[in-house]
Amino acid sequence: MHSPTPREARIAVIGAGPGGLTCARVLRRHGIPVTVYDRDPDAHSRDQGGSLDLHEEDGQRALREAGLLAEFFALARPEGQEARLLDATGRLLDHHLPDEGDTARPEIDRGQLRDLLLRSLDAGTVHWGRALRSVSGPADGPRTLEFADGTTAGADLVIGADGAFSRVRAAVSPATPRYTGIGFLEAWFDDVETAHPELSELVGRGSAHVADGERGLFAQRGSGGRLRVYLVRRVPVDWMAASGLRPDDTEGIRARLLDEYGAWSPELLRLITDNDGPYVDRPIFALPVPHTWEHTPGVTLLGDAAHLMPPLGVGVNLAMLDACELALALARATTLDEAVRDYERTMLARSTNLARRLEGATGHLLSTPDPAEHPQPAHTRR
Ligand SMILES: Cc1cc2nc3c(=O)[nH]c(=O)nc-3n(C[C@H](O)[C@H](O)[C@H](O)COP(=O)(O)OP(=O)(O)OC[C@H]3O[C@@H](n4cnc5c(N)ncnc54)[C@H](O)[C@@H]3O)c2cc1C
Asked: Best substitution site from 109, 126, 162 to test ligand 1's pocket, by max atoms within 8 Å of Cβ?
């Protein structure tokens, strides 16, 4: 099969998340043309969610290759590295305060990160409102992208950066994500500093993890006084419908949570019940471990599409590292195929190794480790 050079090829990235946008940015820095397709109608049509810590060794490394590290640090919150571990009575078990000048894992709002990456791309690079349905075409030739709006596009290389329920994945692997048995229920506070100073004091400037062995919560500060709380519960995937609750029945869900978390201290219960807006159900899925595939010319995957793992603080960093390494491999290689093989060799070995270590680890979010044995908070342990 003839494999074109990266500079003459039509490269399509599916997904304008942190992985897809980082890949596009690093490719453009090396003069390689790229088109990104995303199903969202536009960049701000959907709340981008909470805060992400970007690590020196992966997420920050990718931003350095993207030429965006200084802009990242102008937005990042190093103070967000503060982490507290509490028991269900509200007793502080462990408290990590970052040293002055510590920038190993600063936090940034997910929306700020997406905007930073989008601003760095030429207008028109991202085609919004294009939900991919499938990838077709011969294994030895260009691929056809089929979108939900009935349009199609051709590509010599399709990069699946389309997240947990990737539509590109089927072109390389039959694997599908499985429910881990753990559900996150997301709640948020718009301005905790003014409206709930006692909760601001309780969580501090970073995050707080509380658990009693059966259930947990993870509270995370964002910019502008926002606070996001993930209630971590061992529940069936359809727990809400099975309990006769609807997603917009905020009072019904609240009553159920008061029942489940009733033995927790009144102060902690306020984190669960005094939230603004509705609760958002986020069942946690993961790909089978290991997830690998035979090299397939013209298609590859990165980030959650390649290796969806439980959310234990590595997902975005791995997605951005994959993205940067794939783009650099394309900048170095003489053919698309050589670049993708190089990238997959490293990425699949790394993600398999990490996925094995994190398999089943979501349960850690339901218990508080002994701080003497585990000086770092549970959610950041590797
Ligand atoms: C509740 C929760 C909390 C988390 N917290 C953290 C954390 O604190 N730290 C951390 O590192 N990780 C965290 N993660 C994991 C992290 O969110 C992911 O690992 C990371 O976002 C993966 O990036 P990505 O670019 O691969 O995919 P995504 O961020 O999922 O981006 C995928 C993009 O593809 C688009 N898309 C999807 N399907 C299609 C389609 N068919 N056609 C076109 N476009 C499509 C989407 O609109 C989206 O823009 C968390 C995950 C969850 C669920």
From this structure: 162
Which atom of ligand 1 approaches the CA of 309 most closely? Answer: 19
167 and 65 in a common domain: yes
User: How do residues 260-291 score in pLDDT, each as one tens digit?
Assistant: 999 999 999 999 999 998 999 999 999 999 99
Asked whether residue 53 is marked as a ligand-binding residue, the answer is yes
- Nearest CA-CA partner of 133 in 144, 142, 146: 146
Residue 143 backbone dihedrals phi, psi, to 5 degrees = -100, 155
Number of domains in the chain: 2
Same domain as 269, residue 342: no
Same domain, 245 and 370: yes
Q: CB–CB of 306/318 below 8 Å?
A: no
Cis peptide bond N-terminal to 290, omega within 30: yes
- Which residue, among 169, 204, 137, 133, has the nearest Cα to 304 in the 3D structure? 169
| Whether residue 280 is found in the same domain as residue 310 | no
User: Which CATH number fits the domain that encloses residue 357?
Assistant: 3.50.50.60
Burial class (CB in 10 A: 0-12, 13-18, 19+), 15: buried
196-239 residue pLDDT tens: 999 999 999 999 999 999 999 999 999 999 999 999 999 999 99
Mutate to test the pocket of ligand 1, among 132, 304, 322, 324 (most ligand atoms within 8 A of CB): 304
